[in-house]
Amino acid sequence: MKKILILTLAFFVPLINWAQCAMCRTQIKNNVSAGETNVAEGLNNGIMFLFFTPYLVVFAIFFFWYRNSKIKKHVSLNERIKG
Questions:
Q1: Using one digit for the tens of pLDDT, what is the confidence trace for 7-61?
Q2: What does the buried/exposed string (b/e) look like for 21-56 if buried means 16 or more CB atoms within 10 Å of the residue's CB?
């Protein structure tokens, strides 16, 4: 169980990475050279949000599936003990 938890945390711990698409690079460079860093920071945050969303959805599906399978195993073991 500890190995699964550590592996899961390793994939979902936010890393300090800044993503940037090639098409937006020129616009960001122009804004940064003019002294406006808010646009670049907002764009990078938006890209990172869009990047992590599918992983969070997959993790949520796996989590609920795993939890339900544990509950079903526990219920079937209790039925065997009683029956």
A1: 777 777 666 555 566 667 777 788 888 887 787 788 878 888 888 889 999 999 9
A2: eeeeeeebeeeeeeeeeeebeebbeebeeeeeeeee
SS (H, E, C) the chain: CHHHHHHHHHHHCCCCCCCCCCCCHHHHHHHHHCCCCHHHHHHHHHHHHHHHHHHHHHHHHHHHHHHHHHHHHHHHHHHHHHC
In total, the chain counts a number of residues equal to: 83
Residue 24 token pair: 């937006």
Give the CA count within 13 Å in the CB-facing half-sphere of 20: 13
Residue 10: both structure tokens together:
């390793």
